């Protein structure tokens, strides 16, 4: 389970419980914001991903107590988790026996293959501002749909303050990423991972959980990526939750989310038939 930027282990607990309730063991990997904004330009995160990849290889080399081969299923959140998945796939590329052990991938609020400063700025802004970010609000309360009205009291000023802060943060981050993402080394590393995700995914089912209301990842880009994967012959399922915010589909639609995941798991994981 590969978390969104700034996620903590406690945030992934309810998702882990979805899997453990179905008899599937789950581990989680999260990326703190400070690890991505450091002077090493993400090298610390890359080292952690490499360590995780090596641990997965070691785990896959063993068998279950009943002699069954072990397999992996990835559940990623936002583009951060999705890119971590891509980095793991890149590590596995030269070993087909490892790729064959990946049984499925769930992409929650991710799947935009573009190296877009606006998307990166929106993601980092949401991670930094947390509940103060408009990305956490339902579709009819986001920053894009709010207009500042003439002052009708101090409450209006207070309501405008978070929007002003977010606007300033977004503007600063966008300028930052316009520079960072064009750096040759950074661009090369990202392009390599995105190429793997676009063209060299394992031959296993993919499930995309997204929403039209997502203010971080453009839903149109996700849908285009889904179509590209289908054209490559991949087995792809998708569900548009419509109004739910970024990485918040399960909280807003728990029954629908669980049902979609349950149907998908039946395609990925062998079920004992009695």
Automatic annotation (TrEMBL):
Keywords: Hydrolase. SUPFAM superfamilies: alpha/beta-Hydrolases (SSF53474). The keyword Hydrolase applies. Pfam families: DUF829. One of its GO terms (molecular function) is hydrolase activity. It comes from the Eukaryota. This is Alpha/beta-Hydrolases superfamily protein. It comes from Thalictrum thalictroides (Rue-anemone). The lineage of its organism: Eukaryota, Viridiplantae, Streptophyta, Embryophyta, Tracheophyta.
